Amino acid sequence: MAEAAAALGQFDFAGDDHVVPFQVEGLDVRGRAVQLGPMLDAILERHHYPAPVARLLAEVVVLTVLLGTSLKFDGKFTVQTKGDGPVDLLVADFSTPENVRAYARFDQALLNKAIESGETEPEQLLGKGILAFTIDQGKFSQPYQGIVPLDGTTLEDIAGVYFRQSEQIPTRVRLAAAELFDRDDAGKPRHRWRAGGLVAQFLPEAPERMRQPDLHGGDGDTGSRPHGEDDAWLEARSLVETIDADELTDPLVGTERLLFRLFHERGVRVYEPRAVFDRCSCSRDKIQGVLKGFSAEEIEASQENGEIAVTCEFCSTTYRFEPAELQPAE
């Protein structure tokens, strides 16, 4: 069934935690935009991450949601970083059609040192390493993984490199995360996390128009125009680059209003929004199945006070098992 499109003002705004697909016909551009609020806040506050770590993970969650909601099949899309910086691991995955989970791993001592020295930019916290994008369609298909280096540039730019290498589609990604300090309905001080993002891709009917800039320039290159790059994509990319980080996270702007600001002169259309939710895929049965594969010696070594406790790194749920529950059925 084809998605229904509408012009701004013909429908209710999507609001937080809804991905909004859009199309700019005059520029041959398609994309998705999102603002994350309560869903993201629940993920971050569950682990009480330090602010620099929470901000980084928020950007990875936005990127995962923007790309994961484009899947046309049942499966899972995962974004993962591995680096040698204070934040050595970030993981977020999207399970179709709407479930998101994420967590971060960091070295507290190295993080404290980075904060004291003022080295808290994303590229400084991540260090050198890799950013991996994994698409898994289930047990009957081989997972696909695309890997690009963490090379001291932003996650936005690294994502652009991934698209140029893997899909050969001119793409611009924008990501932002912010802390909000306000008051709730009862007047009490409140702290919240918000994040937003946008991905725009150049998809003209004539494939020969999809001219790519050289990799070393990157989508964020503000230098001279790459030879042969299409005028429509140049315009679209320039418009996307005018987005201020505050616009991506401001609850008073809203996703549709931001898209109107950017592309109204070219006739932007938005499509039915897709809700996303903070839902983990762990379960007692899944973990019990894993533990039943342990040897008797491993089960014995894993016990504490006569039971085995396993805590999910994503949602922090703890599952407890008696050793007798892990014995193979006779």
UniProtKB/TrEMBL annotation:
<keyword id="KW-0143">Chaperone</keyword>
<feature type="region of interest" description="Disordered">
    <location>
        <begin position="206"/>
        <end position="228"/>
    </location>
</feature>
<keyword id="KW-0676">Redox-active center</keyword>
<dbReference type="Pfam" id="PF01430">
    <property type="entry name" value="HSP33"/>
</dbReference>
<keyword id="KW-0963">Cytoplasm</keyword>
<protein>
    <submittedName>
        <fullName>Hsp33 family molecular chaperone</fullName>
    </submittedName>
</protein>
<keyword id="KW-1015">Disulfide bond</keyword>
<dbReference type="InterPro" id="IPR016154">
    <property type="entry name" value="Heat_shock_Hsp33_C"/>
</dbReference>
<dbReference type="InterPro" id="IPR016153">
    <property type="entry name" value="Heat_shock_Hsp33_N"/>
</dbReference>
<keyword id="KW-0862">Zinc</keyword>
<dbReference type="InterPro" id="IPR023212">
    <property type="entry name" value="Hsp33_helix_hairpin_bin_dom_sf"/>
</dbReference>
<dbReference type="InterPro" id="IPR000397">
    <property type="entry name" value="Heat_shock_Hsp33"/>
</dbReference>
